[in-house]
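As a warm-up, study this chain.
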Amino acid sequence: MNYDRPQELLKPVKRRFITLTFAIALLLELLPLPLGSNRWLPDFVGLLILYWSTNQPRRIGIGTAFLIGLLADVTSTGLFGQHALAYSVSAYLILLRQRQLVMFNLGQQTLVVLVLMMSNQLIMALARWLTGATFPGISYFLPPLIGALLWPLLTKLMLLPYHGDHR
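Now compare it with the structure written out below.
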C-alpha cells in the first residue's frame, strides 16, 4: 500500500452526469417488463435520490427530490405525488445526517439505505391506502431489500467515471 498519496482522488461531478443517471433510471421505469417482474425490481430512482443526496447534497436536495418524484409518478402511472412525498422525506432524512453518513463504510450505508428504502415503500403504501387501495402484501417490501443489496455496487459504479489519474 502506498501511503504518499490519498486513497481516492475524485474529479468534480458534472451536473450532466447526475441528470443522465436520473434519465436512465426514469427510462427503466418505462421498460415493458413481464408481468410480476416488478415485484423484485428496486426503485432505481429512489436509490439515486439517496446516492446523490448523500454525495452531492448541494445539488440534490429536498426540492429536487420532490421534482424527480413527480417525474417518477408520471412514468409509473401511480398515485400522483406518492413518489414525490417519499423521495422528499428520504432526501430530508439523508440531509439531516449527511456528514455522518459519508463517513460510514458501505455496510453501514447499506443498512441506512435499507431503512430509507423501506420507509419510501411504507409512505407510498400509506398514500395508496388513504386513497382507498388495498394493502399490496408483504412482497411489496422486497424491492427495498434488493435495492439495499445493490447499494455497494451502485456506489462503485457511480464512482467509476470520477476517479482521478493515479500515475
